[in-house]
From TrEMBL:
Gene3D superfamilies: set domain protein methyltransferase, domain 1 (3.90.1410.10)
Organism: Nicotiana tabacum
Domain SET: 71-289
InterPro entries the UniProt entry points to: SET_dom, SET_dom_sf, SETD3_SETD6_MTase
Protein name: N-lysine methyltransferase SETD6-like isoform X2
SUPFAM superfamilies assigned: SET domain
PROSITE patterns: SET
Source species taxonomy: Eukaryota, Viridiplantae, Streptophyta, Embryophyta, Tracheophyta
């Protein structure tokens, strides 16, 4: 989608200076048609929950419009996804779905104008993001805040992986996500302990203790992790910001809005143009970034509805080094590898099997460091069988370590345990696809070997 839209951008730049305008127009029409065809394969169907009230969100939208927000979107609640944005009318590629004036964007400039900036500026290692986090903890309770309506729409408790309870954490046993969440929580706790209660003791008027508890700190962390955007300002600096109203847009693996995050100096606003069409009544999606499902669960609190190409599992392959191995090429420097669900691969034939070529090459060279080709010889085929059987055994063990998925009860569990079990199911699915591909690969190789044995 990004590549196709880059073609449209190039056509737009050439349109005013190139004489072959007819050819450019034909190319543009063809590109738009391809985008529409690609988008048809990535439909995300979610029902609008009509009984859920959006009064606070509508008040925020009206406030935004009074402040200069222009939007073709309406806020609604979606089953299983919470709040989202729906197109009010049909929109084409390039249309601006939403335009947010810089005057209502929450950025570090607000901290600079606050009483706490002079204090925090003296704290060694204090980042702009941490200053904003501490500012928002206090501003949330300010009845006279310009952003009161925005803070009123935020949940009292964010449901991200950082808020997982003990049962949910234990449900992740056997996954790398268990360690990731524990380490993230430990990091945040250490950061909190460095700041408090010292700031409250030294400056109780600026940092009231009742507003700066651990629970409030975690809430603010989840707010900034799950709602902030990186914005490029006109001075060339990239800043982390909260963008009211735009934060209602949900993520998709194939979003309508891909290119955003840069201030338009002519309008002093942030624009959200469409990279693919969005019809009236359809949910309009934003791309949060190229994140794995584990990252989205930990810091945003959801798993993508569509297959996520960035669900990559790191592997540390323990193989004995061979003499001469260091000179066999760039893969010799690799100490870890990555693998994803084999349903993403279109090459399932011999020497590929839907598995990453760097991983396969690494394992081949660990067995035969001087081999430079992958010809269909009995020797190479025997090595392929060894590799596939090893991988099959490895990933079957990983699958078994996740436990029996049939025992998972998602109907009677809490939100966090359900989310943990859904993630575990995803891990099983990835591992199972690799096992199935290895088994199919073994059959292919054995069939080819049989020809040499006859």
């Amino acid at each position: 989608m990004e590549a196709l839209n880059s073609i449209l951008t190039a056509i737009a730049k050439l349109g005013g200076e190139h004489s072959a305008s007819t050819a450019l127009q034909e190319l543009r029409v063809a590109t738009v048609n391809v985008i529409s065809e690609v988008a048809k394969n990535f439909k995300e169907e979610r029902k609008v929950v009509t009984e859920s009230s959006c009064e606070q969100e509508k008040c925020l939208q009206q406030w935004g419009e009074d402040e200069g927000v222009k939007s073709q979107l309406e806020i609604s609640y979606f089953e299983g996804a919470g709040r989202g944005a729906v197109a009010r009318q049909d929109m084409r590629i390039g249309d601006i779905a939403m335009e947010i004036p810089l005057s209502i964007v929450i950025s570090e400039n607000l901290v600079h104008a606050s009483q706490m900036h002079s204090i925090l500026g003296e704290v060694e290692g204090m980042s702009a993001e941490t200053m904003l986090l501490l500012w928002s903890m206090k501003e949330k309770h300010n009845p006279d805040s310009k952003f009161k309506l925005y803070f009123d729409t935020l949940p009292e408790k964010f449901k991200t992986g950082l808020s997982f309870g003990i049962e949910a954490i234990m449900s992740l046993d056997g996954t790398l996500l268990l360690e990731e969440i524990v380490q993230a929580k430990e990091h945040l706790r250490a950061q909190y302990d460095e700041l408090f209660p010292a700031l409250c003791n030294d400056h109780p008027d600026v940092f009231p203790p009742e507003l700066y508890t651990w629970e409030q700190f975690l809430w603010a962390c989840e707010l900034w992790y799950s709602n902030s955007m990186k914005i490029m300002f006109n001075d060339g600096k990239l800043r982390t910001c909260l963008v009211p109203i735009a934060g209602f847009l949900n993520h998709s693996s194939c979003p309508h809005i891909v290119h955003y995050g840069k201030v338009d100096f002519t309008t002093n606003s942030i624009k959200f143009p469409l990279s693919r069409p969005c019809n009236a009544g359809e949910q309009c999606f934003l791309g949060y970034g190229n994140f794995s499902s584990s990252h989205l669960l930990t810091f945003y609190g959801f798993l993508p509805q569509l297959d996520n190409y960035y669900d990559v599992i790191p592997l540390d392959i323990d193989v004995e080094s061979n003499e001469g191995f260091a000179d066999t090429g760039p893969t010799s420097d690799w100490t870890s590898h990555m693998i994803r669900g084999t349903w993403f691969s279109k090459n399932l034939g011999i020497f590929r099997y839907g598995l990453p070529p760097p991983l396969l090459d690494h394992m081949r060279r660990s067995r035969n460091p001087f081999s430079q080709t992958m010809n269909l010889t009995p020797e190479n085929l025997e090595i392929e069988l060894e590799i596939l059987r090893d991988l099959c055994s490895m990933f079957q063990d990983m699958t078994d370590a996740l436990g029996d998925g049939q025992l998972d009860d998602r109907e009677t569990t809490s939100w966090d345990t359900k989310l943990a079990l859904d993630f575990k199911y995803l891990q099983r699915r990835i591992f199972s696809s690799i096992v199935a591909s290895c088994q199919a690969g073994c059959e292919l190789v054995e069939s080819e070997l049989q020809r040499y044995r006859l």
